[in-house]
Amino acid sequence: MRSLIDDLLTLGRTGDSVSELEPVDLANLTANCWKNVDTAGASLTTEIDRQVLADQNLLQQLFENLIRNAIDHGSPDVTVEIGELDGGFYIEDDGPGIADKEQDAIFELGYSTAENGIGLGLSIVKQVTHAHGWDIHVTDSSLGGARFEITGAEFAHK
């Protein structure tokens, strides 16, 4: 229920663009998001040590939704990896992946393959990325599951 309320609040807050950007440490954010999601026997690998200019609350919701999605659609011992891309970052897992024919549909409001899913999580992920002026693309991961690539992000200088 808490996740549903958080998703609905994020959906209501996410406008066409984000105006307040701050440096957000992706390693710290990832660790905090991991604590906020029921990760059961899942494992996390963080391969990025950068700060991205973002709205921290919205970015947290994005990460939590993608982590939750990996766990809900993978096995209880799924591995999630967060890493750096040229101009962005990725979140991938070693779960079952997403069929090519579904890769566009997964971001539609109300789309879900889960028995008790309501289809808000990935729609919010897409809205958050677009509100930041970023792009999101889903593909197969190097781990064999799904990989969400977020590009167009601006990293803060260290």
UniProtKB/TrEMBL annotation:
Reactions performed catalytically: ATP + protein L-histidine = ADP + protein N-phospho-L-histidine
List the molecular function annotations (GO) for this entry: protein histidine kinase activity
Q: Which domain of life is it from?
A: Archaea
Residue ranges annotated for the Histidine kinase domain, each copy included: 1-151
GO BP, one example?
Answer: phosphorelay signal transduction system
Q: What is its EC number?
A: 2.7.13.3
Enumerate the InterPro entries for this protein. Answer: HATPase_C_sf, HATPase_dom, His_kinase_dom, Sensor_HK_Regulatory, Sig_transdc_His_kin-like_C
Question: Could you tell me the keywords of this UniProt record?
Answer: Kinase, Transferase, Two-component regulatory system
Is DNA-binding one of the keywords? no
Q: One of this protein's Pfam families, by short name?
A: HATPase_c
Q: Record's SMART domains?
A: HATPase_c
UniProt-recorded name of the protein: histidine kinase
What is the protein's species of origin?
Halorubrum californiense DSM 19288
